[in-house]
Amino acid sequence: MNDKIIINLGRQFGSGGKQVALELGRKLGIPVYDNELITKAAESSGFSPDVFRKKDEKRNLFPVSSFFATQTFGSPKNYLNGENLFQIQSSVIRDIAEKESAVIVGRCADYILRDLKCTVDVFITAPEDIRTGRIMDRMNLSKEKAKDLIEKTDRKRETYYNYYTFGNWGVASNYDLCVDSSILGIEGTADFIIDFAVKAGLLHREAK
């Protein structure tokens, strides 16, 4: 492998994007950052992880007094807005990219790391019926509730991404590669992404 590769992976809800990310990490022997970014962002900022979990890939406004770990800033008039949280998480993502190879799931990582030459920006999708079935099975929901959750989650991700990147979430021109995970399956999709990275000159060898 090259000295470093960063795979930034956007995904539709229920497309199996997280599973593809984990498979990429396993095959390449590199860490995968998803919810782990929340912990790292909290550690670097001194805030409780709760503020990042509640804010994750959404746009809201939170009172600092509710989440600050030490309660030093206890005034209810103090607020930490979405831009502050985005900057904290962006710093964590850039720090990861400087230190190691990684798969980074969502959180506008493709935009944050847009100036790096060692990145592959991927978007994972799947047909609506496939995604609905996955969410029904995974969360024990009815078809109607699963479809509603998919719609709401994707809308939040799209709003978050478009606001902070001035781009268009899920639009092919924003990414190096867009893949329907239902065609090759989770492992096959991971292999396809690795093969793409090899042919793009970002990997010097095949996956393990």
Condensed summary:
The protein has nine helices and seven strands. It is of the alpha/beta class and 208 residues long.
Description of the molecule:
Helix content is 52%, strand content 14%. By secondary structure, it is α/β, with parallel strands linked by helices. The protein has a single domain, classed as Rossmann fold, CATH 3.40.50.300. It has a 5-stranded parallel beta sheet, sandwiched between helices. A two-stranded antiparallel sheet has the order 3-4.
Q: What would the CATH topology be? A: Rossmann fold
Strand content: 5-15%
Number of helices: 9
Proportion of helical residues:
40-55%
Ranges with pLDDT <50 over ≥5 residues? 61-78
Query: What's the SSE pattern?
Result: EHEHHEHEHEHEHHEH
* Sheet having the most strands: 5 strands, parallel
Termini gap: 10 Å
CATH class reads: Alpha Beta
Q: What's the Cα radius of gyration? A: 18 Å
CATH architecture: 3-Layer(aba) Sandwich
Given helix and strand content, the structural type is: alpha/beta
Count of extended strands: 7
Query: What does the average pLDDT come to?
Result: 86
* Overall morphology: globular
Strands across the major sheet, in which order? 2-5-1-6-7
Number of domains: 1
Q: CATH homologous superfamily?
A: P-loop containing nucleotide triphosphate hydrolases
